[in-house]
Predict the 3D structure of the following.
Amino acid sequence: MKDKSFKIIENSLEDIKALDTKVLNLQKLNTFTDTLLITSGSSSTHMSAISDRVIDDLKKNKIPIQSVQGKNSSDWILLDLGNIVINIMSVSARQYYDLESLWDDSLA
């Protein structure tokens, strides 16, 4: 699960001080992605900075991003790399949608 893309993302999130990052391994579920990351920002500005940092670091390493959703959202930004999906959420949106409970058996 920890390929080059994952390590770059992990370092980016740590460097930009993303909050409460969770990694869910969905490989055994044969679903839309292999790895789901859920993290939070302390504000919409912080969420945008997290997104920008991850995107920039992936581009520097020539790793393609298939889709970016909610870039201007104050609640939820999604980065889709195909095998890895990153959810950058506000604390309130994260509590409301509670993605961790949907996939709790998959926590890596």
User: Anything to note?
Assistant: Helices lie at 4-15, 44-60, 91-97, 99-102. The first helix runs from residue 4 to 15. DSSP finds four helices and five strands in the chain. The chain has a mean pLDDT of 91.
